[in-house]
Amino acid sequence: MNRYYKSCLVLLLGLLFTTPAMAVEFAFHGDLNNRFSLYSNHSDLYTGAKFEKGVAKIPTIGKETNTSWGDIKYRFWTEAATNDNKVKGVLGVELGAIRFGDSTKGGSFSGDGKNFEIRWAYTQFQIPGAEGKSLVTLGLQPYKVNSFVWAETAMGVKYTADMYELAWMRGNEIFNSTADDDNSSADSFSARVNLKPAEGTKLGLFGLYQLQDPGTVAKATTTIPFDDKTGAPGAPKTTYNNVVDAGKYGLKQMKDVEYNIYTVGVDGGLTSGNIFVNWDAIYQGGEFKNVNFFGVDNSGTLSRTGDFDLSAYLLHADVGMKMGDSKVTFTTWYASGDDNDTDDQFDAFISTDVDRFDSIVLFEGGYTDDNYLTERPYLFNKGMFMNKLAYDRKQNEKTKFGVAVLYMQTAEDIGTEDQVGTEFDAYVSYKLYPNVELALNGGYLVTGDALTQFATADADEDIYRLTSRVRVSF
Question: Which has the higher per-residue pLDDT, 203 or 48?
Answer without folding.
Answer: 203
